[in-house]
Amino acid sequence: MSTNTLIAYPKSHEQEIALRSFMQSQNIEFEEEDSKEYEPEFVAKILESEAEVKAGKTVRVDPDNFKSFLGL
How far apart are CA 61 and CA 67, in angstroms? Predict the structure, then answer.
């Protein structure tokens, strides 16, 4: 018998508790992830960008020429 992986997105703390309780009562294995943490690669990119700004590696764009800057 094959099974699928299900991913649930409870909209409230109460839904999370109910979902967790149901899965435990049915002996369904599950993993929890803290959704408040960012992926390490994303954090690295943000830190790199902040360092570039501090080093003056930025480009100023005239708002009147914004579309041409983007190639639109």
Answer: 10
Both tokens of 49, joined, read 């960008």
Rounded Cα distance between 7 and 62, Å, is: 45
DSSP-derived secondary structure for 12-65: SHHHHHHHHHHHHHTT-------TTSPPHHHHHHHHHHHHHHHTT------GGG
Residue with tokens 């800057």, as numbered in its chain: 69
**pLDDT surpasses 80 at 67:** yes
Q: For 8-56, how does the pLDDT look when each residue is reduced to its tens digit (9 = 90+)?
A: 989 999 999 999 999 999 999 998 887 777 888 999 999 999 999 999 9
For the chain, what are the domain ranges?
13-70
